[in-house]
Amino acid sequence: MNPDHIVGTAQMPLAPFAVPPTVVEQLEPAERDALRAEIRTLLVREDAVLVAHYYTDPELQSLAEETGGYVSDSLDMARFGHEHAASTLVVAGVRFMGETAKILNPEKRVLMPELKAECSLDLGCQPEAFNAYCDAHPDRTVVVYANTSAAVKARADWMVTSGSALDVVSHLHAQGQKILWAPDKYLGDYIRANTGADMLLWNGACIVHEEFKGRELAELRQQYPDAKVLVHPESPPSVIALADFVGSTTGLIKAVKTMPAQRFIVATDRGIFYKMQQAAPDKILIEAPTAGNSATCRSCAHCPWMAMNGLRKLAAALRTGANEVLVPADISARAVIPIKRLLEFSAQRQRVVYGNNDA
Ligand code: 13P
Ligand code: SF4
Q1: pTM, 2 dp
Q2: How far does the centroid of ligand 1 lie from the alpha carbon of residue 161, in Å?
Q3: CA distance 230 to 228
Q4: Domains defined for the chain, CATH in brackets
């Protein structure tokens, strides 16, 4: 990874924010059953649908599936919420996901179990500093990852997700555009290496993926030589270098299903194991190491902010209408442009891949 491409190192410490401990909700079976029953009733009463990210507690993922809701990655969550008829979207995930849902659906009410569910990438890219950075590079196309605030998206030309970034940047590079990328330096470096695009990278990182360890992963792979290594591209280059497959959350789930191996070492949030196991029940999944000699392990393969979503908070939000996501109209009007640009780009790619011009 070439440090010359990374900006902001001196001005911005990587984590100028507090990382909460990862606390997973613990419930006795009777309370769990009562909450699930109450949430089912409230979803109907409130004309609401539950949309959950792959990293949330399996309790929430299974409830979304059982109630006609949806479990997916950040882009597909936004698409589902946009197309669904419900007047209230309940987004179990982190705040940028709720904001994206609101920006795409200003007429709908968007609730979240916990509004303080943040993301280190979002927190590490504050709008004032980001605007100054963009002002300093007016010749560059601004591409931001979905994991950013509405205010940062409002300054962007394009929003991308981990599943779409390679395609979008290849497209821009083919047009000769130079790119200003924020906020994940590891994902940006991976995209740069695979497209050859001229990219300046913001100095941000995901505190969960950053903790996967290359050396310890190599040792684990020696222990299980038959295992395939699956890596999310928010991980450091030393971890990506050991991957048999690098991909977005949806891509990693597909890989478990389709790759002809029985055992997988998985470098992403362990919440994804619920859907991986559902997709391939007979396969063995092993968490990639976050421990070892060089460990700092603040999250241990589970995002502390995703873990803030639980049944108690979900029921409370639906009961009271608390935790509504609101985005100022002027910011929303600008942020919707790069988001819709990506949705249209992705839909067009699907039409090219599947040859369906009516879709
Ligand atoms: P996806 O866009 O693949 O859902 O990932 C979001 C995320 O927060 C990864 O850490
Ligand atoms: Fe953000 Fe990382 Fe948590 Fe995803 S896993 S929401 S990138 S802190």
Answers
A1: 0.92
A2: 7
A3: 7
A4: 29-119+306-327 (3.40.50.10800), 129-205+335-354 (3.40.50.10800), 209-287 (3.40.50.10800)
User: Atom 5 of ligand 2 has which residue's CA nearest to it?
Assistant: 303
**Ligand 2 atom at shortest distance from the alpha carbon of 119:** 1
Per-10-residue mean pLDDT, the chain, length 359: 54 66 93 98 98 98 98 90 96 97 96 97 96 97 98 98 95 98 97 97 95 92 97 97 96 97 97 98 94 55 95 98 97 97 90 51
Say which ligand is closest to the CA of 71: 1
How crowded is the C-beta side of 171, counted as CA atoms within 13 Å?
14
Q: What pLDDT is recorded for position 291?
A: 67
* Cβ-contact 173, 195 below 8 angstroms: yes
DSSP string, 237-278: HHHHTT-SEE--HHHHHHHHHHSS-SEEEEES-GGGHHHHHH
pLDDT of residue 347: 87
C-alpha to C-alpha distances, 86 to 44, 45, 294, nearest whole angstrom: 10, 11, 48
**Closest ligand 2 atom, CA of 55?**
5
Which atom of ligand 1 is the closest one to the Cα of 74?
4
Strand order in the sheet with 284-287: 245-246, 228-231, 263-267, 284-287
Pocket of ligand 2 (CB under 6 A): 55, 94, 119-121, 147, 206-208, 234, 269, 303, 305-306
Q: Which two tokens stand for residue 153?
A: 């998206």
Please give the pLDDT value at position 297.
54
Span from the CA of 27 to the centroid of ligand 1 (angstroms): 27
pLDDT computed for residue 11 by the predictor: 41
Task: Please identify, by atom number, the ligand 1 atom nearest to the C-alpha of residue 209.
Answer: 10
